[in-house]
Design brief:
The chain is mainly β and 121 residues long. The chain has one domain (6-103): Metal Binding Protein, Guanine Nucleotide Exchange Factor, Chain A. The protein has 1 helix and 10 strands, in the order E-E-E-H-E-E-E-E-E-E-E. The strands form 3 sheets. Strands 4-9-8-7-6 form a 5-stranded antiparallel β-sheet, with no helix packed on it. The longest helix has 4 residues, at 36-39. The mean pLDDT is 90. The chain has one helix at residues 36-39; strands spanning 6-11, 18-23, 29-31, 43-47, 51-55, 60-63, 71-75, 83-87, 93-98, 114-116. Bound molecules: zinc ion. Zinc ion binds next to loops.
């Protein structure tokens, strides 16, 4: 996949929650923690400034677990988590977008997906 910065549009299943994110999708990852394993999402972190929630802010409900540093946000209508908010550990606010919620979902090359060992974090 070519690493080109572009604006991607994403949404939950029902479309109540819509967002745009500027990213090159060059550092997608999955995670084997107790939660991500169940969710099965592929995530890409973007700086909070490169993310815009276009609709659905009032239709989100959130969940935190373990260290509670990541705010997992779900559409309260369809239950899909299209993004989460957190920090990169260096104080930079980031948004983890669910790549599977992007329109025009890129053909994911599994060999480029980094595996985060969240189960042993
Ligand atoms: Zn929805």
């Amino acid at each position: 996949m070519t690493a080109t910065f572009k604006t991607h549009h994403g949404q939950c299943h029902c479309g109540a929650v819509r967002f745009t994110a500027r990213t090159d999708l060059a550092s997608m990852g999955d995670c084997n923690c107790s939660r991500c394993r169940r969710l099965g999402w592929v995530m890409q972190s973007v700086p909070a400034g490169d993310f815009d929630l276009e609709s659905g802010a009032d239709n989100l409900t959130s969940f935190r677990f373990n260290t509670e540093t990541i705010e997992h946000l779900f559409c309260r209508t369809c239950g899909i988590e299209s993004f989460a908010r957190g920090s990169d550990g260096k104080g930079l606010e980031v948004v983890m977008i669910n790549v599977n919620c992007l329109e025009e979902v890129p053909a994911l090359d599994p060999t480029t997906i980094k595996h985060w060992d969240g189960a042993n974090w």
